Amino acid sequence: MSEVTLVGGGLSGTLLALMLARRGLKVTVYERREDVRVEKIEEGRSINLALSVRGLHALKQVRLAEEVLAQTIPMRGRYIHPVHGECSLIPYGRKADEVIHSVSRRGLNAQLLDALGREKNATVYFHHRCTGYDLRTRALHIRDESTGREFNVEARVVIGTDGAASAVRLALMLHTKMNYSQEYLEHGYKELTIPPAADGGFRIEPNALHIWPRGGFMMIALPNLDRSFTCTLFLPHEGSTSFTQLAMSNLAHAASYFFEKTFPDAVPLIPDLEHEFRHNPTGGLVTVRCSPWHLDGQVLLLGDAAHAIVPFFGQGMNCAFEDCEALMELFDAQGGRWYEIFPRFFATRKPNTDAIAQLALDNFVEMRDTSADPHFALKRQLEHILEERHPGQFVSKYAMVSFHRVPYAEALERGRVQDRVLMEICSRVKSLAEIDPDAAFTRVQEALREK
Fold it and tell me: Pick from 83, 99, 103, 102: which is nearest to 91 by CA?
């Protein structure tokens, strides 16, 4: 029986292990954390995820899509909260099924681990940290975090699914000619909580991703099954409006004062604002790029270990799940010959993971700045009209990424052209009645041909 060792038992690691085990391979997973099904949740680290069509398609391959969907909440659009005035919902799509799904990272990881636990040829060792990998001897260095014991494991084929701070990637970097870069945003994030209402219901619209765009920074909120919302404040680390400025403020209730000025309708929704703001950690936002992701059919990086991205298109998990599916398609086609599979996987996935990294960075600007612009809402309405009138010929950038499986590189290229043309049209009018949709479609098609 062929053997594969995975370093990292998070979302992509457990899904890939499940796919491999069901193909008859013996799979061993080493995960540095405790089992998420029994460990306590670290305050301020409960990050919700947005599951969309790419992730769902991968879950269907292991017959878990329906089970996972039963534990999600559909979000039909962006619910925009201005500083003053009426809130508004901007739908993601024009069809009832064009939604994204709010899902608990912890809950989804637990579902995947439960499924993996039913596979006889798969073993997961929790609280076992990879401290290195000797590429020459193929010895994986492991430390049992519960006892402190250190030992080596022979690992002929290693796949690193151990996240943005990957130990497997570090071994490749130290002993091969790997190119590597990491780029931190000037913004960080802090999580806050909107608890359920007194009657146990949701305090705000549950079937939406709430956004408080403020130009240069923003807050979002995603619904949870317990009727709470996980809020995430994205703010610069430094500057006049920043986490550092708030931390150094002499005001006794600096966070409350800041929120009353910038997110006034959110203040009554977050009763523990001051406590959570002081005690929940401030996280960083990083984009990781490296190449190549593999070595001689022996080592491969996958998911965040190969291409960590910022969370603003909700595609980190979906992209990693698509990685798993793409790798297994090559495995099936190449008969398990890793020395052929790994380089082909890298060659086909790298342009697309680079593209979604850029799409995510672009979408941050759109969410915090453009989404409050009435011309942006007008553009979304026009996109829905064009999709209805020209099915298959016009697909919005958001739909290409979230509701279709168009390669990310193509979505980036086509989406930029379409956005530029349609925003130019919408910026000159005040209502849809002033726009000729057929003329707009023609202009988009001409621009795409010229690109």
Answer: 99
Over residues 329-337, mean pLDDT: 93
* Max CA separation in the chain (angstroms): 71
Give the C-alpha distances (Å, rounded to integers) separating 294 from 25, 288, 353, 379, 395.
Answer: 20, 16, 15, 42, 34
Mean pLDDT score, 300-304: 98
Q: What average pLDDT does this structure show over 161-185?
A: 95
Same domain, 245 and 382: no
Q: For residue range 18-41, list pLDDT tens digits in order.
A: 999 999 999 999 999 999 999 765
Q: Which domain holds residue 423?
A: 373-450
In the listed set 256, 284, 312, which residue is the last one of a domain according to the structure?
Answer: 284
Q: From 127, 122, 92, select the one nearest 208 (Cα to Cα).
A: 92
Question: How sure is the predictor about 43, in pLDDT bands with cuts at 50, 70 and 90?
Answer: very low
Give the C-alpha separation, 88 to 376, whole Å: 12
**Distances in Å between the alpha carbon of 381 and those of 213, 231, 242, 396, 431?**
19, 27, 34, 11, 10
Q: Are 11 and 105 in contact (CB under 8 A)?
A: yes
Whole-angstrom distance, CA of residue 63 vs CA of residue 68: 10
End-to-end Cα, the chain, rounded Å: 50
Answer yes or no: do 175 and 63 share one domain: yes
pLDDT of residue 40: 65
Both 353 and 378 in one domain: the answer is no
Give the type of residue at 147. T
